């Protein structure tokens, strides 16, 4: 393995970025601001445009391709689509500078590590990373996974010191541990929001625009996070679901939990429904008297109430009363965690803001006196949400099948049509979602 003496561990140390999309640019800017010299590229056809964009940043030099970046850099980060990592590393990996450090930022480490092992010269150190947040979230205090896969201690410490400028919380994992935890947190959480979007699309509704069915803190989270996901690039979500070998089980179980709970509701099997949900509650959140949740709730619902897209019309007043909902998506999430023996609190150290928010909402539902009883009652008696629940169930099964068959093209199509449906409403809505996440992150610090 390379030692310090083989590198110029000084100002001459150059960081290479291959892939200058949202995450690559965020890394480039932050590293450059911290004083590091960055050499970066995207696809060759974007060279001129990127060079212009970064022309006034003297610490960032745009190169034409990954060969040039690889030859010039001491530490190279691949920040490309997860599905492309094999092809891109195959192309540029052999050009890696002698004794350099190489890592990737993809959301799923199995294909990334396989690509590095297959295509990097044996003198190269492999240290991967994963910032567990999107490009527009302040990285300070957010988890940053670091994977010392094949590296000297010195190289690993170098990566830690370079990335310390993000001020994130470093979490040391193996690639396998990373994929298992992110399957439990990200993949299955996204499945819920992707299914909500499909359900509302199928019923051709913008849920915040139709009267008072979707009002209140929990509904705001559903709507804002669903829109946030559909406003992003499809490949981020497809990659971490389809390419993560650990994620298929979770997404499949989420679909089964949804279907089985919905059947119990349709069949009016109140006792069975209550028993199943209460058992899941005990497994996930602990028994009465010995809860797994902290004394202080993860979320303040009043805070979420502020982030509604539904602006009451004149005369309606600010306080439109929320319609009781059976929250099938949340009951199914907890049932899924329970069936797979997942204790979500164990994963907080390696969680995204989105996951923490969703867990916070689930916790709120299960710990607020009377709320769960209301859900179960509505699930059996009330038909107001039946159409949405039916479509949600179909959607969850559809995503699960698509993932299990590794159908990238179908996944993209499914995403794209629903993205198109919501697109006219993204403007403004995305900002509200962003403000909500920011407020929740702020409140986590209190
Ligand atoms: N967005 C997010 O919230 C997060 C994403 N990630 C992960 O980070 C990685 C990057 O994501 P993100 O930045 O959002 O995605 P983007 O699509 O914005 O960026 C990826 C970039 O890599 C480029 N690229 C593809 N092939 C090559 C190549 N041969 N040479 C140079 N550049 C190439 C792409 O070009 P083109 O578009 O033309 O293919 C694109 O510009 C993904 O693996 C994602 O899973 C991790 C954490 C958070
Ligand atoms: O918070 C989430 O789950 C997001 O949607 C943003 C995101 C997407 C991909 C990642 O690898 C990490 C974070």
TrEMBL record:
Q: What is its EC number?
A: 1.3.1.13
InterPro entries named among the record's database cross-references: 6-PGluconate_DH-like_C_sf, 6PGDH_NADP-bd, NAD(P)-bd_dom_sf, PDH_C, Preph/Arog_dehydrog, Prephen_DH, Prephenate_DH_fun
Reactions catalysed according to its record: prephenate + NADP(+) = 3-(4-hydroxyphenyl)pyruvate + CO2 + NADPH
Swiss-Prot/TrEMBL keywords: Amino-acid biosynthesis, Aromatic amino acid biosynthesis, NADP, Oxidoreductase, Tyrosine biosynthesis
- Keyword flag Zinc: no
Give the Gene Ontology MF terms in alphabetical order: NAD+ binding; NADP binding; prephenate dehydrogenase (NAD+) activity; prephenate dehydrogenase (NADP+) activity
Q: From the UniProt record, give the pathway where this protein acts.
A: Amino-acid biosynthesis; L-tyrosine biosynthesis; (4-hydroxyphenyl)pyruvate from prephenate (NADP(+) route): step 1/1
Is Transit peptide included in the keywords of this UniProt record? no
Top enzyme class: oxidoreductase
Please name the GO terms of the biological process aspect recorded for this protein, alphabetically: tyrosine biosynthetic process
Gene3D superfamilies for this protein: 6-phosphogluconate dehydrogenase C-terminal like domain (1.10.3660.10), NAD(P)-binding Rossmann-like Domain (3.40.50.720)
| Any single Pfam family the record assigns to this protein | NAD_binding_2
* The Prephenate/arogenate dehydrogenase domain, residue ranges: 13-295
Q: Which PANTHER family match?
A: PREPHENATE DEHYDROGENASE (PTHR21363), PREPHENATE DEHYDROGENASE [NADP(+)] (PTHR21363:SF0)
Family in the record: Belongs to the prephenate/arogenate dehydrogenase family.
User: Could you tell me what this protein is called?
Assistant: Prephenate dehydrogenase [NADP(+)]
Q: Which species is listed as the source? A: Triangularia setosa
């Amino acid at each position: 393995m390379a030692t310090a003496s083989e590198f110029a561990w000084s100002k001459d140390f150059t960081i290479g970025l291959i892939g200058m999309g949202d995450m690559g640019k965020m890394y480039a800017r932050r590293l450059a601001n911290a004083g590091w010299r960055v050499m970066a590229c995207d696809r060759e056809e974007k060279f001129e445009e990127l060079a212009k964009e970064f022309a006034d940043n003297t610490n960032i030099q745009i190169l034409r391709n990954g060969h040039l970046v690889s030859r010039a850099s001491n530490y190279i980060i691949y920040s490309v689509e997860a599905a492309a990592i094999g092809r891109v590393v195959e192309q540029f990996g052999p050009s890696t500078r002698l004794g350099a450090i190489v890592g990737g930022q993809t959301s799923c480490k199995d294909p990334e590590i396989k690509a590095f092992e297959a295509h990097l010269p044996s003198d190269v150190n492999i240290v991967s990373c994963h910032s567990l947040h999107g490009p527009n979230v302040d990285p300070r205090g957010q988890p940053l996974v670091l994977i010392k896969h094949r590296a000297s201690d010195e190289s690993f410490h170098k990566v830690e010191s370079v990335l310390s400028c993000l001020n994130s919380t470093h979490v040391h994992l193996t690639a396998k541990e990373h994929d298992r935890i992110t399957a439990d947190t990200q993949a299955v959480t996204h499945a819920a929001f992707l299914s909500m979007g499909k359900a509302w699309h199928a019923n051709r509704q913008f849920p915040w625009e139709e009267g008072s069915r979707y009002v209140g803190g929990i509904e705001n989270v559903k709507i804002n996070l669903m829109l946030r996901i559909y406003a992003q690039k499809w490949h981020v979500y497809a990659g971490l679901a389809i390419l993560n070998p650990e994620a298929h089980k979770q997404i499949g179980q989420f679909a089964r939990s949804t279907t089985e709970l919905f059947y119990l509701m349709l069949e009016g099997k109140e006792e069975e429904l209550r028993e199943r949900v209460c058992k899941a509650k005990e497994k996930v959140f602990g028994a009465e008297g010995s809860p797994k949740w902290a004394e202080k709730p993860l979320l303040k619902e009043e805070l979420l109430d502020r982030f509604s897209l539904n602006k009451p019309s004149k005369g309606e007043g600010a306080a439109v009363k929320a319609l009781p909902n059976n929250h099938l998506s949340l009951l199914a999430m907890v049932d899924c965690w329970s069936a797979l023996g997942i204790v979500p609190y164990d994963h907080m150290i390696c969680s995204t803001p989105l996951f923490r928010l969703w867990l916070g909402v689930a916790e709120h539902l299960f710990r607020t006196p009377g709320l769960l009883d209301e859900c179960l009652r509505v699930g059996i008696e009330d038909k107001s949400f039946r159409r949405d629940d039916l479509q949600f169930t179909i959607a969850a099964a559809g995503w699960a099948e698509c993932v299990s068959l590794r159908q990238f093209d179908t996944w993209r199509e499914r995403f794209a049509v629903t993205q198109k449906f919501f697109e006219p409403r993204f403007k403004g809505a995305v900002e509200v979602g962003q403000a909500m996440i920011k407020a929740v992150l702020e409140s986590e610090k209190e």
